Amino acid sequence: MPNNLLAGKVGIISGALNEKSIAWKVAQRAHAEGARFVLTNAPLAMRMGEINKLSEECNAPIIPADATSVEDLEKLFTGAQEQLGGKLDFMLHSIGMSPNIRKGKNYGELNYQWFQQTIDISALSFHKMLAVAEKQDAFNEWGSVVALSYIAAQRAFLDYTDMTQAKAMLESIARSYGQRLGKLKKVRVNTVSQSPTKTTAGAGISGFDAFYEFADKMSPLGNAPAEACADYCISLFSDLTRYVTMQNLMHDGGFSTTGISQEMADLMEKANA
């Protein structure tokens, strides 16, 4: 039920590809809560996805931008402020891609050029966005920035390969820039570590179904769906969380703090039998 939590707020939402995307759900919830925003994605992703449909639904202009290009990002932030009539109150970074994962490279066989691309796309893009925003003084005071992460930033997960390092860097950037923007503009910067989610990107990871089922059986509340993650992001964009910053916030149904669940114990006993 909408509560106008974002009434009067404006921002940028990146990474909406299709209806399975968490960014897509965030955009829908932000619209329902009274926000106005610009949608952005890389030109290639826009051709593959359905962002025009979301743009019409949310009455949100689209500004294409390659998040690895500072020049594109400068145009994005300038254009967003022009389109929205002023400085920004929130931003979602939902950008991640690994050529190594797409090409089926295991961790011991990484192509290092592709590894650098993974880092640039999935982590350095976050720094670039924040640096451009800082230089343009693009955020209002008490603004909020959220980037989507995953627990593989802290733990080893098979087949997540170089995205593990990218997510760890993403979370580190959030802490460092959170300190900087907090002092400069009282802008808060956080990451949300989401459960395995059946998005287009998630489904591209080898063994994803095993990731998903394991986490679901380990989590007391089960895996958090994309819609619930969107709700959490909206709460972080709102004024209700003004003093939450530099945090990696677990949104995983309790997975990250569960040793073993009864379901997993039963499965192990059955397997041993």
UniProtKB/TrEMBL annotation:
<dbReference type="InterPro" id="IPR014358">
    <property type="entry name" value="Enoyl-ACP_Rdtase_NADH"/>
</dbReference>
<dbReference type="GO" id="GO:0006633">
    <property type="term" value="P:fatty acid biosynthetic process"/>
</dbReference>
<comment type="similarity">
    <text>Belongs to the short-chain dehydrogenases/reductases (SDR) family. FabI subfamily.</text>
</comment>
<feature type="binding site">
    <location>
        <position position="167"/>
    </location>
    <ligand>
        <name>NAD(+)</name>
    </ligand>
</feature>
<keyword id="KW-0444">Lipid biosynthesis</keyword>
<keyword id="KW-0443">Lipid metabolism</keyword>
<keyword id="KW-0520">NAD</keyword>
<comment type="pathway">
    <text>Lipid metabolism; fatty acid biosynthesis.</text>
</comment>
<dbReference type="GO" id="GO:0004318">
    <property type="term" value="F:enoyl-[acyl-carrier-protein] reductase (NADH) activity"/>
</dbReference>
<keyword id="KW-0275">Fatty acid biosynthesis</keyword>
<feature type="binding site">
    <location>
        <begin position="21"/>
        <end position="22"/>
    </location>
    <ligand>
        <name>NAD(+)</name>
    </ligand>
</feature>
<keyword id="KW-0560">Oxidoreductase</keyword>
<dbReference type="InterPro" id="IPR002347">
    <property type="entry name" value="SDR_fam"/>
</dbReference>
<dbReference type="InterPro" id="IPR036291">
    <property type="entry name" value="NAD(P)-bd_dom_sf"/>
</dbReference>
<dbReference type="Pfam" id="PF13561">
    <property type="entry name" value="adh_short_C2"/>
</dbReference>
<feature type="active site" description="Proton acceptor">
    <location>
        <position position="150"/>
    </location>
</feature>
<feature type="binding site">
    <location>
        <position position="95"/>
    </location>
    <ligand>
        <name>NAD(+)</name>
    </ligand>
</feature>
<protein>
    <recommendedName>
        <fullName>Enoyl-[acyl-carrier-protein] reductase [NADH]</fullName>
        <ecNumber>1.3.1.9</ecNumber>
    </recommendedName>
</protein>
<feature type="binding site">
    <location>
        <position position="15"/>
    </location>
    <ligand>
        <name>NAD(+)</name>
    </ligand>
</feature>
<keyword id="KW-0276">Fatty acid metabolism</keyword>
<feature type="active site" description="Proton acceptor">
    <location>
        <position position="160"/>
    </location>
</feature>
